[in-house]
Structures
1.
Amino acid sequence: QVQLQESGPDLVKPSQTLSLTCTVSGGSITNRSSYWSWIRQPPGKGLEWMGAITYDGSTSYSPSLKSHTSISRDTFKNQFSLQLSSVTPEDTAVYYCAMVYGSPNYYWGQGTQVTVSS
């Protein structure tokens, strides 16, 4: 059973960089049959796909977030990370990491609430 766990600060000040890490157990982030995503849900809104990283380190991003989003990985620690720069209060959300595979199917982390506020 694949398990994912998000970690990082729960409060970030405006204009700073939000950094989150997803630790994966029960599966490898170098598995060719899956890719690894960051998804968020602002309060009162739907899920928003932010971007993903594949087994070989290739990345893709939502066009609306691409200019200030970066996803990276650490294969030794079996982790992948999100950096969102120049945050504003509109970036307040529950942030999820997820493994995507198949038709697609998902394994989700439990999510972590991040608030952007001074």
2.
Amino acid sequence: QVQLVASGGGSVQTGGSLRLSCTASGLTFSYYDMAWFRQSPGKEREEVAGIGILGTTRYADSVKGRFTISRDNAKNTLYLQMNSLKPEDTAMYYCAADPYTGGTCSAALRSWGQGTQVTVSS
């Protein structure tokens, strides 16, 4: 059974930085597309950043140039370095894992972590 444990959230002021971590177990980590999502009250959950099995990264326009996603397959850990934080980055952040099956990434089989809260004050 896939388990994802996110950590590293907290409260910072505008312009501050945080590093989120997501430790995975119960899966062959290197065979999963990994991503960070966020959700704030009253809003849809949105993908913030993702990283494929070959290390290709993708970012939401709102975080490009400020956030960096990375993975350490030896440690089964996903990271999100968040710099120049803004109040609009305030949200619960979730990590997600999509397995590759039949050569394609399967979002239908996605697993979610429990979330870690990020609060940015002005």
3.
Amino acid sequence: QVQLVESGGGSVQAGESLTLSCEGSGFDFSIYWMAWFRKAPGKGRVGLAIIDHNGDASYDDSVKDRFTISKDYAKNTLLLQIDSLKPDDTATYYCAADTFGGTGWRDPGSWGDWGQGTQVTVSS
């Protein structure tokens, strides 16, 4: 059974950096595609970044200059580094996992497994 547990969120000041973690268990971390989404208050879940089973990453244009997705294969952990945080980054951040191959990855419905989310609040 796939389990994903996010951590690393918190309350930070604008301009600071934060690294979110998503620890995975119950699946072969090396063959799964994984992604980060976020959901801001009053908005839908938005895809931010995806990383494939080989470690190749793609980003939504809105975050590609400040967000870095990576996998720590030794710890079965997905990471998201966020630099130069802005108040607009305030949201609940979720990781997702699947073996579907990445087509339509921005659609939350494409992903079969989700973590519970970690809250990031950025104050100005």
4.
Amino acid sequence: VQLVESGGDLAQPGGSLRLSCAASGFTFSTYNMGWFRQAPGKEREFVAAIRWGSGTTFYADSVKGRFTISRDNAKNTLYLQMNSLKPEDTALYFCAKGREPFWSGSRYDRDYDYWGQGTQVTVDA
């Protein structure tokens, strides 16, 4: 299993970024996928998740209405569109693969078993 994030960058408050996560080594379409983030000195926190089949999405309250998670099963790629960025969105962003196939979505990191190396998002004027 390999997860490779990209798209992190320096953005201004109010700006937008789109993160990507290229997945390989498993049947991407059958697993829930999630985005988490970790800011310096803080614990890793849930950002968003998307279910394997229906594409049902879940968001942390802090990003709801600003971030959109999506997936392209044909390309084995997970996305996170981030709009209206705030300085408090600054963090290392990770994508993660659900632990079990055909499982309901989760916001808990214990329910994910593989993680990418992360991509840095910095929001600063």
